[in-house]
Amino acid sequence: MSLFKVFDISGSAMSAQSVRLNTTASNLANADSVSSSVGETYRARKPVFAADLNQALSDRQESVGVKVMGIVETDKPLLKEFHPDHPMADAEGFIYKPNVNVVEEMTDMLSASRNYQTNVQVADAAKQMLQQTLRLGKG
Amino acid sequence: MAISFDKAFGIHQHALTARSSRAEVLASNLANADTPGYKAKDMDFQAALNQAQNNQGFSLSRTNQQHFAVEIAPPGMVQFRVPNQPDTGDGNTVDVQTERNNYMENALQYQASLEFLNGKISGLLKAIKGESM
């Protein structure tokens, strides 16, 4: 019954989108974390989505779920600011701020939550279809 | 005179099978709306219905656990959708609005087939019980 597979597929998308929401939350939370060296500074994290290859290689090829391949840190340059009075300033008077783009993170957040909602609705519609099938012939 | 369930239920039982596999394909499109490089797919409903009716397509039997599960669908079943937008930048061709509409439409058509089946079953029950229509 392929309707049961809909739950697996939308479920995988929901978990992938919630990983995306988690990384977005982490990025936004750390948007203002200041540090005194390049190595210690927080960098924006992004999940990498891929169609689930295992599922694609197994019995059916038509439908695949989503897999989070990993979470990567972006390579955008950090913000280096001259702030000699800052308590975290290094010997030369610089502080380092994360490369988090708040606007980008907000749009990512909206996109993730919309996609999550869509997948919930897909699973809900499949649930209704199955329930009606179970009631078949009961009048 | 025997009651033939195959004749009584007609095409609707096969339509349900085809509709539920289409739901799976469309759900996969919606799930992969943010996956780079994913290409949206859909099925040729006529071909899917024919397959459901005749059980075309074949799978190889597996005599060992390590064998690949090979299932060969009849040609022309699942095809890639022609995208509305030429390029979205990441190679993904899923248009969420289109897919959602198709998914809901497919679900309603599934329910319509269920209604038809329910009607047939209640008709058969009436015939069995000897009630008047």
UniProtKB/TrEMBL annotation, chain A:
One of the GO biological process terms: bacterial-type flagellum-dependent swarming motility
Record Pfam families: Flg_bb_rod (PF00460), Flg_bbr_C (PF06429)
Every Flagellar basal body rod protein N-terminal domain range: 8-32
UniProt xrefs under InterPro entries: Flag_bb_rod_N (IPR001444), Flagellar_basal_body_rod_CS (IPR019776), Flg_bb/hook_C_dom (IPR010930), FlgC (IPR006299)
Family: Belongs to the flagella basal body rod proteins family.
Domain Flagellar basal-body/hook protein C-terminal, first and last residues per copy: 92-136
Protein origin, superkingdom: Bacteria
Gene Ontology CC, one term: bacterial-type flagellum basal body, rod
Protein location: Bacterial flagellum basal body
Entry keyword set: Bacterial flagellum, Cell projection, Cilium, Flagellum
Name listed for the protein in its UniProt record: Flagellar basal-body rod protein FlgC
Subunit structure, as described in the record: The basal body constitutes a major portion of the flagellar organelle and consists of four rings (L,P,S, and M) mounted on a central rod. The rod consists of about 26 subunits of FlgG in the distal portion, and FlgB, FlgC and FlgF are thought to build up the proximal portion of the rod with about 6 subunits each.
UniProtKB/TrEMBL annotation, chain B:
UniProt KW keywords: Bacterial flagellum, Cell projection, Cilium, Flagellum
Organism superkingdom: Bacteria
GO BP term, pick one: bacterial-type flagellum-dependent swarming motility
UniProt keyword Protein biosynthesis present: no
Coiled-coil stretches noted in the UniProt entry, renumbered to this chain: none
Entry keyword Repeat: no
Subcellular location as annotated: Bacterial flagellum basal body
Record-annotated Flagellar basal body rod protein N-terminal domain positions: 11-39
GO cellular component: bacterial-type flagellum basal body, rod
Cited function: Structural component of flagellum, the bacterial motility apparatus. Part of the rod structure of flagellar basal body.
Subunit structure: The basal body constitutes a major portion of the flagellar organelle and consists of a number of rings mounted on a central rod.
Family: Belongs to the flagella basal body rod proteins family.
Listed name of the protein: Flagellar basal body rod protein FlgB
Lineage: Bacteria, Pseudomonadati, Pseudomonadota, Gammaproteobacteria, Aeromonadales
The gene coding this protein: flgB
